[in-house]
Amino acid sequence: MKLIIAEKNDAARQIAERLSTGKPKKDKVYNTAIYRFEWKGEECVTIGLAGHILAPDFCDSVLFDKKLGWYSVTEDGEMLPADIPDGLARPPYDTKRKPFLADGISIKGWKLESLPYLTWAPVIKLPAEKELIRSLKNLAKKSDSVIIATDFDREGELIGSDALNKVREVAPDLPVARAQYSSFTKAEITQAFDNLVSLDQNLADAGESRQHIDLIWGAVLTRYLTLAKFGGFGNVRSAGRVQTPTLALVVERERERMAFVPEDYWQIRGMGAAQGAAEDDRFKIAHKTARFTDKDAAEAAYGHVDGVATATVAAVTKRSRKQQPPTPFATTSLQAAAAAEGISPARTMRIAESLYMAGLISYPRVDNTVYPATLDLGAVVSDLAKINPALAPVCKKVLAGPMKPTRGKVETTDHPPIYPTGEGDPSALDGGQRKLYDLIARRFLATLMGPATIENTKLELDVNGEPFVASGDVLVTPGFREAYPYGLKRDEQMPPLEQGDAVDVFDIKLEAKQTEPPARYSQGKLVQEMEKRGLGTKSTRASIIERLYAVRYLKNDPVEPSQLGIAIIDALSQFAPRITSPDMTSELDGDMTRVERGEDTEEHVVTHSRALLAGVLDELLKHTQELGDAISDAVTADARVGACPKCGKDLVMKTSAKTRGSFIGCMGWPDCDVTYPVPSGVKVSPLEGEAAVCPECGAPRIKCQPFRQKAFEICVNPTCPTNYEPDLKVGECKVCAEAGRHGDLIAHKSEKSGKRFIRCTNYDDCGVSYPLPARGKLEATGETCPECGAPIVVVNTARGPWRICVNMDCPTKEKKPARGRKTTTKASAAKKTTAAKKTAAKKTTAKKTTAKKSTTKKTAADK
DNA sequence: GCAAGGTC
């Protein structure tokens, strides 16, 4: 039997289909899909891997000793020189700069002292896809020859080489060959398998050099930054060959914005309309001098038009222009287009993967922007019409047309550009999937359609001697726009006016403006910029940006660096500039090309890189204190929500050590005891200028961003009059009424805790009291709860009014979990609830830990 | 607890 190893299941299936005379038989070894067929009279089987099946990692069971070098300790305490493959690890004998630390240095724990050793630590390869490796070995034992048929590129050669090594463990003498193909056409696949070559170990070594260099630099710098100022577990400060230059791009743009000096300019604008036209038919007019840089000139011109009610049409010009249909989607252009529709690149890839797996779209990781001749475009369009009723009319038009597809600049033959397969059931898709599927389907149709024609009407007006202009675009021939409305501006229809006509003018205003700094990157633009600079690959860029958000170097969208992100770039560009520049990637590319060509070796390239890193680390270790302080200051600055009304120091977001909950506290603690609760369910950020201080109580006002809802601004102080009406009567006490006396229920706030509650004026007799939510201005309704008789109040949260029965024990509360954290009125009940909460918190933590563990395990098993 | 690259 001939064993054919492909990089992914899809490739395994396609190879089987192309080589087989009949239909290949789908089968399974353990849980792995395989395809059996006959080729040239021989029994064959293809198996698809899942990319890399081995993952490089440090060999952390070894220790370092200056005499022995790397060694391991046996159970009996015997010290044996470590058996390190490849000879890649070399103790730093040749770096005289660094004094040796005591013997027995381990690289296992994260310690600053061990980093010089980590720089030189041996790298081994651990199985990452255990299931697949098991299946692979099982097949290898039954085979009498093997063909490596992974993708024809550097990583593919490495994946093939790793697979071969695993095969060799059970079948050391199995004859091996390599099939090189760049597309899945029958001709290309047949040609590749008819002309087998041998595995290119140099190419695989080049790939492995990249793996090692990325791991070593990434691990050493990440551990260094994390340890320079340890911020507690879960606060890793990462660095890497791709992520750090990407972050630097964002920081650089932010610096340009900060350095930008705005310039004043003036605009004169208003509205115009054909005489007697309805208000809806008005159009914007502006002075022909779009930007006056001279204030006097602007005021002089405005003096001529201020209060003028009519103008004359001086000229009408019509010009039509063509908008060409877009090119087919490759990964980056899909990510950019989806980002413009509010789907982040990382989410785009997750959704695209699910659509691909469900068979609705073609393979989503492609650079190719030219449809292959073998793709039957017409068949796809008619299939698309069948499963998408909404697209059927436009599909019909496409089929009736000449159908000449557009083409982009990049042409490869491994995969077609991303297109809808015309199969599956799009009506079953959920929101995000549907949105992305529509984008892909409509883009595909657009690439087969004609240009759009847009007619522009330009009006020149004479407003009391001053030249004004108005302009409107109208889509006259929709062309591809019929299928692809994304980013299309709304029509601005100008009325049918002619030279000499009179026009009404309104609301002419002189506006003082300032020039704007360069815009921040959108996530889509950032992906494109990374591609332009050679950072990352189509498969990794999205996840790398996501990672930068996860470690809180980046925030918001458009992309903005945090103070921490800026501090990291400042520190690294000063002491480790290699890692902040995209040059490291281009240099690595050069190194790898030489390894590929046999002009250099993996060992030499990696060792050279280790030596460079050793120098960088030396430099960094001299400035750990300084760098740690900078990181620490930046983290504080990121947590700042405003100034303390009591002592003026910074108020920051803090995490309670006991409850792990967050609160807003003063940096002056313990001298200043000002604290506020954090609004729940929202992302909090500081405001600037006048808006940052509450005029009523002096506490900071903050911006709250709920998930996918409009942001709002509130005062952080829950007992501020802007949030709360004190001493409000919300009803009458039922218990007192039954006892034949009168008691009023009044809303209070505690001086001590700042907590809000309702209490009866005869509390000493009846003991009636109810808790209130921390925030939201109260309103009495005069109504009582039909279930329990307690008063009903309206709490005006910034997200809208919220009507509640104040009794926490009321049966109406059973239906939905309490939103507030307030406990019941009685002290015992309060205790109980607190205890329950603690248990719940513990449970959640335990759950999280287990979940995390199992995920780790799962990932390890998957890899 | 670390990177970046494949892919599920």
How would you portray this structure in words?
- It is a single chain.
- This protein has 7 domains: 1-199, Rossmann fold (3-Layer(aba) Sandwich), CATH 3.40.50; 232-257 and 522-630, Topoisomerase I, domain 2 (Orthogonal Bundle); 265-324 and 452-513, Topoisomerase I, domain 3; 331-446, Topoisomerase I, domain 4 (Orthogonal Bundle); 644-715, no CATH class; 729-825, no CATH class; 827-863.
- α11 runs antiparallel to α12 (392-400).
- The protein starts with a strand and ends with a helix.
- The chain has a 6-stranded mixed β-sheet, with helices on both faces. It has a 6-stranded antiparallel barrel with strand order 13-14-17-16-15-18.
- The model is unreliable at 84-102 and 815-863 (pLDDT under 50).
- 36% of the residues lie in helices and 23% in strands.
- The structure holds one DNA strand of 8 nucleotides.
- Residues 825-838 have a biased composition (Low complexity).
Task: Summarize this entry quickly.
By secondary structure, the protein is of the alpha+beta class. It has 7 domains: 1-199, Rossmann fold, CATH 3.40.50; 232-257 and 522-630, Orthogonal Bundle (Topoisomerase I, domain 2); 265-324 and 452-513, Topoisomerase I, domain 3; 331-446, Topoisomerase I, domain 4; 644-715, no CATH class; 729-825, no CATH class; 827-863. The strands form 9 sheets. A 6-stranded mixed sheet has the order 2-3-4-1-11-12, sandwiched between helices.
Total number of helices: 24
Please provide the count of β strands: 34
Q: What coarse outline follows from CA principal-axis ratios?
A: globular
End-to-end distance, in Å? 27 Å
Low-confidence stretches: 84-102, 815-863
Relative helix content: 25-40%
